[in-house]
Amino acid sequence: MNPLLTTGLDEKRGVTALSVNLNKVALLRNTRALGIPSVTRAATLALQAGAQGITVHPRPDERHIRAHDVHELAGLMKQWPQAEFNIEGNPFHNLMDFVRAVRPHQCTFVPDETSQATSDHGWTFPQDASRLAPVITEARSLGVRVSLFMDPLPGAMRAVRELGADRVELYTETYARAHGTPLQADVLAAFTATAQAALREGLELNAGHDLNRDNLADFLAAVPGVQEVSIGHALIADALELGLAETVKDYLRCIRKASAR
């Protein structure tokens, strides 16, 4: 299991887990019919380098992760009992079929549409509450932790808790765009406030989207209680230069740097 060392509200911060998103590995593989690069091999290298989890986001069009990848990774993860398998996606598209079939440690519900290039917003409350309630209940009945992909809106955290979700994943693209600009402090403050609100409601915290080696430590140092970051695009891009194992180790160094502040 991922390290759950603190509530995030005390002075001793827990070590944030790194979950490596493998979508871009699958995207490259799908340009040929040779099966390379191997998604399961990439997962193995990431775990051997110290990653605490693997994330995939299988979309209905199988533009990157395909159904067989999910099942093969579920089998691989049985060899890594200390690590977690997180499957992301829209529960009203194809995600619940995978949740029922492989029962990952965590499912992250994301309100993406089939036409979107990537996830670009979180759930909206109260509009999405009634349809989310039954799928949250079902996933939790299967023993799967539920995380909701959310924008940094402190006022929405109570609604998330009332639905029965276990975690929120803070959608961090706005932070990534603001990092290094005069807007950084104000944008980051919204994430800090949202994290504090979530923790007060008894929710746990994840974060992801466009986090990278330049902005990760600053985010984790300012936002309390982040249990897990899911990183794919930047990490795989860095791996083209550094190699996958060294890249994972470098992201883990960024996390340790933040926890030492």
Brief description of this entry?
The protein has 261 residues and is of the alpha/beta class.
What report would you give on this structure?
The chain is an alpha/beta fold. The protein has a single domain, classed as Alpha-Beta Barrel (TIM Barrel), CATH 3.20.20.70. It has helices at 23-29, 39-48, 67-77, 95-102, 129-141, 157-163, 173-178, 184-200, 216-222, 233-242, 244-259, and strands at residues 17-21, 53-56, 84-89, 106-109, 145-150, 167-171, 204-208, 226-231. An eight-stranded parallel beta barrel has the order 1-2-3-4-5-6-7-8, surrounded by eight helices. Helix 2 packs parallel to helix 3, helix 9 (216-222) packs parallel to helix 11 and helix 10 crosses helix 11 (244-259). The two termini are 25 Å apart. Mean pLDDT is 92; it is low at 1-13.
Topology at a glance:
Elements: E1 17-21, H1 23-29, H2 39-48, E2 53-56, H3 67-77, E3 84-89, H4 95-102, E4 106-109, H5 129-141, E5 145-150, H6 157-163, E6 167-171, H7 173-178, H8 184-200, E7 204-208, H9 216-222, E8 226-231, H10 233-242, H11 244-259
Parallel strand pairs: 1-2, 1-8, 2-3, 3-4, 4-5, 5-6, 6-7, 7-8
Helix pairs in contact: 2-3, 9-11, 10-11
Number of domains: 1
CATH level-four homologous superfamily name: Aldolase class I
Instruction: Provide the spatial order of strands within the biggest beta sheet.
Output: 1-2-3-4-5-6-7-8
CATH architecture: Alpha-Beta Barrel
**In sequence order, what are the helices and strands, one letter per element?**
EHHEHEHEHEHEHHEHEHH
How many helices? The count is 11
Runs in which pLDDT lies below 50 for 5 or more consecutive residues are 1-13
Mean pLDDT: 92
- Estimated radius of gyration: 17 Å
CATH class: Alpha Beta
Please report the distance between the alpha carbons of the first and last residues.
25 Å
